Amino acid sequence: MLFNSAPFLVFFPAVLVVNFLLPHRARGLWLLVTSLVFYMCWSPAYVLLMLTSILATYLCGRLIAWCRAARDAGKAGWIHDPRLYVGLCLTLNLGILFFFKYYTFAAESLVGLLSAWGVRWRPPAVDVLLPVGISFYTFQALGYTVDVYRGVLPAERNLLSYALFVSFFPQLVAGPIERSASLLNQLKRRRPFDPEQVKSGAMVMLWGYFQKMVIADRAAVLVDQVYGQPAAYGGGALLVATVLFAIQIYCDFGGYSAIALGAAKILGIDLMQNFRQPYLALSVSDFWRRWHISLSTWFRDYLYIPLGGNRKGVARKYLNTLITFLLSGLWHGANWTYVVWGGLNGLFQIAGDMKNRLFKRLRASWHERAPIKRDCFSYRLFQRIVTFALICLSWVFFRAQSVQEALEILGKILTLNDPWVFFDGSLCAWGLSRLEWDILVCAIAALWAVDLAHERGISLRERLEKQNLLFRWAAYLFGVMIILLFGQYGVGFDAAQFIYFQF
Questions:
Q1: CA distance 5 to 492
Q2: Are 194 and 268 in contact (CB under 8 A)?
Q3: From the candidates 24, 80, 292, 332, which is the catalytic residue?
Q4: How do residues 415-459 score in pLDDT, each as one tens digit?
Q5: How big is the CA angle at 410 (ends 409 and 412), to the nearest 5 degrees?
């Protein structure tokens, strides 16, 4: 069930009404049942995988608590070592994830490697569909296990409460990946009906629908056409498609996150912010503090820091950074293009840090001879343009079907032997008419204006709330009409899939 589909527009209000009519004790069970129904709309069979993950991590948490109680009572032995159960839990959950997401990729890569050595081997064929959201709920459940092991929070005793934590439908399929200490406590507390939260959450959802349906799905028309046959297009078309893909994936995933945050807020739950104006970043490191924040912080806390972080010297810091980003790329998909994408972003960060270290004194000396104003609009604009260009370069690998195809696309973009296509009307021959281009440009301008306002600490929602009732409702209805009139629809008004559902 997609957020931008007609069934969800019936499902969510029904869930909301019944939720607030029920007594507090029954709401958790109601949300758990509706969350499972929500997930089973894709494939009823795969709910068993999620329930397996839920049961395994729940039992692991209880066993960790049992081990600690036994140790406190003076009992020893391997059976009372919590690391045993954490290891078994990680093996089971990551094993399921590997089988469904990475088995074919690993087998094909091994076959290619052995063929290069002259060894012929054919692995057993496995034809399974990737369960929707498996990477998200697996990481959320494993985060809970590690938190219990570290003593961040006690093991959850109520299985139903824990199951709801893992399966909570607004963020189940594509995040944000919530932390157990935050979401578990919120799901347990009383959540009375709050008209202000409902209104605030509805506005956030409306903005998410605008990002997804007006911008992302419209940009996807050109991106899919050009990237679908990159050999048939020159550097100009590929450059435009790459820039639009950067906007598409931001509005697609950012739109999903906004709808999830808004829906949860209406239900009285505050989810973590997943995006913070990423294309206004001043460096690649800054970009990753703003992009998919829940995943970036997950890898930081559960992989980068345990590897040693920046505590064991510069060389080890760079190695840990590269490992983290390579695995982050692999998390996104079973393809070498994602690994290269992750590796590039890791190398960009390492290069940025090396530049800062090696040229710190040189820059200071140069600035004394030829002063450069660093705290001004022009300097920040330059930093943002360079950062956006580097991120777009990495997006080519993310979007291309293979590393070879990505390199060919980059070659055409960097040579750019057809600059006239920007002026001769070719833009309207790549899937979008002149009217569609006008709508897209205006929508992107609105996106940029809102992001810039948020960057400056201006809350447009708060400012709107200060206006008269008639003006506020006119603004709400105007937003709804914009989405209905200018939203991109498929054949038969089909809802377009979200990009991150495939991960």
A1: 12
A2: yes
A3: 332
A4: 888 888 888 888 888 889 999 999 999 999 999 999 999 999 988
A5: 65
Per-residue model confidence (pLDDT) at position 69: 87
DSSP codes of every residue in 103-124? HHHHHHHHHHHHHHTT----PP
Residue 452 has a CB neighbour count (10 Å cut-off) of 12
Residues 6+ apart with CB under 8 A from 422: 236, 240
Any idea what the Cα angle at residue 340 is, between residues 498 and 96, rounded to 5°? Answer: 60
Helix (H) or strand (E) holding 422: none
Listing DSSP states for 384-396 in one string gives HHHHHHHHHHHHH
Query: Residue 418 class from Cβ within 10 Å (0-12 exposed, 13-18 middle, 19+ buried)?
Result: middle
Positive or negative, the Cα torsion across 305, 307, 311, 314? negative
332 is catalytic: yes
- The C-alpha R_g of the chain, in whole angstroms, comes to 25
Tell me which amino acid residue 239 is. Answer: L
Sign of the CA dihedral 157, 138, 179, 197?
negative
pLDDT, position 463: 87
Which residues lie closer than 8 Å to 402 by C-beta, 6 or more apart?
335, 336, 337
pLDDT at 234 over 70: yes
Measured in degrees and rounded to the nearest 5, phi and psi for residue 131 equal: -60, 135
Q: To 5 degrees, how large is the angle CA 9–CA 14–CA 18?
A: 155
3-state DSSP assignment of residue 77: coil
For 192-248, give the DSSP string.
---HHHHHHHHHHHHHHHIIIIIIIHHHHHHHHHHHHSGGGS-HHHHHHHHHHHHHH
CA atoms of 217 and 245, how far apart (whole Å) = 10
* Cα 120 from Cα 115, distance rounded (Å): 6
Query: Given this model, what pLDDT does residue 363 score?
Result: 59
Q: Is 167:137 a contact under the CB 8 Å cutoff?
A: yes
